[in-house]
Amino acid sequence: MNAMTEFTKTAPVSHNVPTSLGRLHVVETGQGPETIVLWPSIFTDHHIYDDLVARLGTSHRFVLIDGPAHGKSDGGTDEFTMEDCANAMTEVMDHFNLDEAIVGGTSWGGITAAHLALMSPARVKALVLMNTPMQIDATRPGLKSRFIASGARWILKTATFRNGVAKSFFSDDVLTANPAYTRAFHDMLKTAKPSRLATAIRSVILRGSPLIDRMAELTVPTLVIAGKEDAMYPIAVQAEAALRAPNGHFAPVDGKHISAVEQPARVAEVITNFISTEAAH
């Protein structure tokens, strides 16, 4: 309780950072010798890390990035690649004078961080991939992916679609126990600019390539966190991806797709142990 009280004295600071993907909203919070840079999933913003920051913010500094057209970030009308996202993450790090950091993210954010580690490993002290799609393949999108990508602009604001996404992302007990988060999730999608949010979603779904094929190229310590009940990204594939990384670590946790929300205490513990053994000064 004392640690949590002490942390609340360090108020988060919002920044609007110009990048090659437009102005990105970035929240700087926490304190400590290690900086963790995180990018969230599609359909979410930096608030999915609130509980994680509440547990680690007294010992770690966080730089939390809202992806294009998500949260308070601008978005554009041109589709982009995951390499473009990695470049934008690098530009955010430059803004904060970070030559290197622990980088990571959830789903889309994990893909972004992995590409940064592949492109500029010297900037990445360690890599944290949470609930990250390892087999996404733009050349062979599934029926559900094609439906979301093609109709994103029109279906995003429907309550039926938002409820469907929420049930895919979170366990029922999590949604029931966290009504404030559920409202925030719906509000973000309702207030987003439909065409720009749809562009971002199409970019992630239709312009990706299988990350699992490149895990062996990662030269930095890599932690893969996966939800045991995540139907979108099977646990066996996540485990295999971690094994392919030369210095890979695998941490299955209870729950579905957004482990930082579903199991923040366990995720905080796993990340702390990983950093202490792989990213210590």
Description:
The model is unreliable at about 1-10 (pLDDT under 50). The relative contact order is 0.15. Strands 1-2-4-3-5-6-7-8 form an 8-stranded mixed β-sheet, sandwiched between helices. It has helices at about 1-10, 50-55, 80-95, 110-120, 145-155, 160-170, 170-175, 180-190, 195-205, 235-245, 260, 265-280; strands at about 15-20, 20-30, 35-40, 60-65, 100-105, 125-130, 220-225, 250-255. The longest helix is centred in the C-terminal third of the chain and has 15 residues, at about 265-280. With about 280 residues, it is α/β, with parallel strands linked by helices. Helix 2 crosses helix 12 and helix 6 (about 160-170) crosses helix 8 (about 180-190). The chain is globular, with a radius of gyration of 17 Å. Helix content is about 45%, strand content about 20%.
Give the topology, please.
Blueprint: H1 2-8, E1 13-19, E2 22-30, E3 34-39, H2 50-56, E4 60-65, H3 82-95, E5 101-106, H4 108-119, E6 124-130, H5 143-155, H6 159-169, H7 172-177, H8 179-191, H9 194-206, E7 222-227, H10 235-244, E8 248-253, H11 259-262, H12 264-278
Parallel strand pairs: 3-4, 3-5, 5-6, 6-7, 7-8
Antiparallel strand pairs: 1-2, 2-4
Shape: globular
Work out the radius of gyration: 17 Å
Largest sheet: 8 strands, mixed
Distance between the termini: 28 Å
- Number of helical runs? 12
Order of helices and strands: HEEEHEHEHEHHHHHEHEHH
Low-confidence stretches: 1-9
Can you summarize this structure?
With 281 residues, this protein is an alpha/beta fold. Helix content is 44%, strand content 19%.
